[in-house]
Design brief:
With about 300 residues, the protein is an alpha/beta fold. Helix content is about 30%, strand content about 30%. The longest helix has 16 residues. Bound molecules: S-adenosylmethionine.
């Protein structure tokens, strides 16, 4: 048996990370080390970089009191960042719980509010190409209404909405749906209905097996879906959601895990054929890969 060397390794650069994060990390560390209040019981720092700034979440094993808030506010101003403190289920927002990002897709710029703690794509330029690829695929088919599952803050939804008459987009995270509604308003898009529902709940609602108060005022029967877009987490789609997807004529499957994508495509290949596919190096210098697949019913 070979043992692992348990001594800590100092990592003072991370070339995979965004440049803004790379330049901020050593400054942040230096400032935190100067303050007993900020450094005591700190066990993690997470970074969210956007075109309009960097948001840092500091997570602690202690209660965040007034003295922490005062020092954190001074640090926020000194480094020109947004700071959020987290401790035992409590979240302390100093000036903002998110940060605005601009994304160029084809000839348009979209503004997105990236909410702290919610999912956002890690690579802006690859993300923009990925959305562009989906838009190009849509030119090949007749688009009526779009159903999107796992929509996050509307990353795909907003640029795709221009190709459809109406869009119904759902997602499990409250924070993402709240950002999606904000993003819709700021980008002046008015043909999208965002609802907080899991993929499983939406299937039950469409099949009229369950009634949800969250769907009050939404006319599900008024949609004529020609396309389904799914962008699930690494685990892929569950058995029921896959069976649900197989009812749609056109499926756009975006995946960050080729293994679960293969598993799900094998199931969908009983009813669908692959029309186009693309690979996106969304996570350079890692063995992770983002894939896009367009499927059409047999
Ligand atoms: C890979 S992210 C994609 C988000 C979005 N499409 C984007 O490009 O930013 C997957 C999303 O699925 C959501 N999610 C996870 N499990 C879900 C479920 N069972 N039903 C609906 N959404 C779910 C997560 O909150 C996350 O926002």
């Amino acid at each position: 048996m070979y043992g692992f060397d348990k001594r800590p390794v100092l990592i003072d650069k991370c070339s995979k990370a965004d440049e803004a994060i790379n330049s901020l990390m050593p400054q942040l560390l230096k400032e935190i080390k100067k303050s007993d209040v900020l450094k005591k019981a700190l066990f993690g720092a997470e970074f969210l970089s956007a075109t309009e700034g960097v948001l840092v979440t500091l997570t602690y094993h202690k209660k965040l009191d007034d003295s922490w808030e005062k020092e954190a506010k001074a640090l926020e101003e000194k480094l020109n960042i947004f700071l959020v403190g987290r401790s035992r289920g409590i979240k302390k927002v100093l000036s903002s719980d998110g940060v605005w990002d601009s994304l160029h897709v084809k000839n348009r710029v979209y503004k997105y509010y990236l909410q702290e703690g919610a999912f956002s794509q890690p690579n802006r330029s690859v993300n923009s190409q990925m959305i562009g690829w989906v838009l190009e695929q849509l030119l090949k088919s007749d688009c009526k209404d779009l159903l999107e599952l796992y929509c996050g803050h509307g990353n795909f939804t907003l640029p795709l909405s221009g190709s459809f008459e109406k869009v119904l987009a759902t997602e499990i995270s409250k924070a993402s749906i709240s950002a999606a509604l904000k993003n819709c308003e700021v980008n002046k898009v008015n043909n999208i209905t965002f609802v907080r529902l899991s993929a499983q709940e939406l299937t039950e609602a469409l099949d009229k097996k369950r009634v949800f108060r969250r769907l009050e005022g939404v006319d599900l029967d008024g949609f004529n879906f020609s396309h389904l877009l799914v962008d699930p987490p690494r685990a892929g789609m569950d058995e029921k959601s896959c069976a649900f997807a197989s009812r749609f004529k056109n499926i756009i499957y975006i995946s960050c895990n080729p293994k679960t994508l293969l598993r799900d495509i094998e199931k969908l290949s009983k009813t669908h054929k692959i029309v186009a596919n693309a690979l996106f190096d969304q996570f350079p210098y890692t063995n992770h890969l983002e894939c896009g697949v367009l499927l059409s019913s047999l």
